[in-house]
Amino acid sequence: MTYELYYWPGVQGRGEFVRLTLEDAGADYVDVARLPDGPHGGTQALLKMLEAPPHGHPSLAPPFLKAGRDLIGQTANILLYLAPKLGLAPRGEAARLWAHQLQLTLIDLMAEVHDTHHPIAGSLYYEDQRDEALRRSRYLRRERLPKYLGYFERTLADNASGRQRVLVGNAVSYADLSLFQVIEGLRYAFPRAQRRLEKRLPACVALHDRMAARPRLAAYLASDRRVPFNNDGIFRHYPELDA
Amino acid sequence: MTYELYYWPGVQGRGEFVRLTLEDAGADYVDVARLPDGPHGGTQALLKMLEAPPHGHPSLAPPFLKAGRDLIGQTANILLYLAPKLGLAPRGEAARLWAHQLQLTLIDLMAEVHDTHHPIAGSLYYEDQRDEALRRSRYLRRERLPKYLGYFERTLADNASGRQRVLVGNAVSYADLSLFQVIEGLRYAFPRAQRRLEKRLPACVALHDRMAARPRLAAYLASDRRVPFNNDGIFRHYPELDA
Q1: Tens digit of pLDDT for each residue in B51-97?
Q2: Which residue numbers of B have CB closer than 8 Å to A's CBs?
């Protein structure tokens, strides 16, 4: 079966968590909105599946995944469904819930990062909420990033069963790929703050580097399937927000 | 087995979604932080389990649920685990993922509601971010609430299998209890805006009323186990934010 991923074509955003899992597993998938425009590709195809999916279960927003007749939305939910099928989830209910909990926590962090540049409304330009953005990003850098990243650092350190030093159990899971992505994004968005923070995050940095070296992931990151970071996405680089 | 719920004692917050499911099912549980202070109760017991749980899997923040040796955090993840055991989840993988997707969408809405009164930082007082709160709440009322609530209204209307008019399948699930809670919260926080919105939400209002009439839920809502809404929680009533 060919999985169909539906996400905005010009950004990494939340969809990137799903792309990384599909790519690292070498799964057969199409990134629908990045195909040429037409009945089965492009943004029009995404909007059609968002508004009126043939078998129900519409999402409030992308990403969503079509797998045969199943349509699954909400990023963490997609991974909950997908990763076990691709060999990137831990075994057993307790470990699966734990990986899902970590993924949900990373998604919470993404929402906070988004709101550093859009603290008032997603429908307004950054420039129209820049004062508030300056104020909010200071708290993200000083309070929230240390809290979140310190949590993941401790989680890695506490996982004694992981000789490979992964987040859950003793094998790489989608949660590790997601933590890699968050570190990449923070390095792009807040390079100065992140450089300082990473001095106290050796386990996170080591995990990041091991993920980047995985052959399929490395090939993906070097390909044009990887949308570059840019200032339309969730992780945006405005130097004034990293000052 | 007695479930142990850990959540801040003075507010409904995200923990209320878990409380409603436990209460509606008549489950055996303790609300640990609301017990008298001591080694096994009160806020101290919550903080201890947050920082150093005996069998690992700490959460970044409450709520979390202890079930025997299992410790599960992230509200939607707790319900994913708990509701099937209490007869409040649909049967089958596709329906369970759909209910979880709806729950995650309600949690997203909660985060946006929280940020109407704390658009800059959770660590600052409301009064120190009131100007930004006025601006952000306007967008929530005009753009986000119609979008979210319209989505749930359509979801109810589209569920032809539900003679009972529930969100998923043909029996009440935790997602219905959660939608009830969000409507209650919005009525408390934004009574003027919500009154206008509800004119176009007949299915949501009908679901809300049916949930409120369920005997165990009604008994809970009338009891002192239900923390009243207040201005320390996520749904807060500041008249200026509803103007």
Answers
A1: 999 999 999 999 999 999 999 999 999 999 999 999 999 999 999 99
A2: 56-60, 70, 72-74, 76-77, 80-81, 93-94, 97-98, 100-101, 104-105, 108, 111, 115, 119-121, 123-124, 132, 135-136, 139, 143, 147-148, 151, 154-155, 158
Measured between alpha carbons, how far is B82 from A77 in angstroms, rounded to an integer? Answer: 16
Architecture, CATH, for domain B3-85: 3-Layer(aba) Sandwich (3.40)
Tokens of A6: 């539906």
The CATH number of B93-214, from 3.40.50.620, 3.20.20.80, 2.40.37.10, 1.20.1050.10, is 1.20.1050.10
Model-level ipTM above the cut of 0.90: yes
Residues, chain B: 243
pTM for this predicted structure: 0.98
- Show the DSSP H helices in B163-241 as ranges: 174-189, 191-198, 202-212, 215-222
**Distance of residue A89 Cα from the nearest chain B Cα, in angstroms:** 16
Q: Are B162 and B210 in contact (CB under 8 A)?
A: no
- Hey, are the CB atoms on B70 and A94 less than 8 Å from each other? yes
Residues of B in contact with A18 (CB under 8 A): none
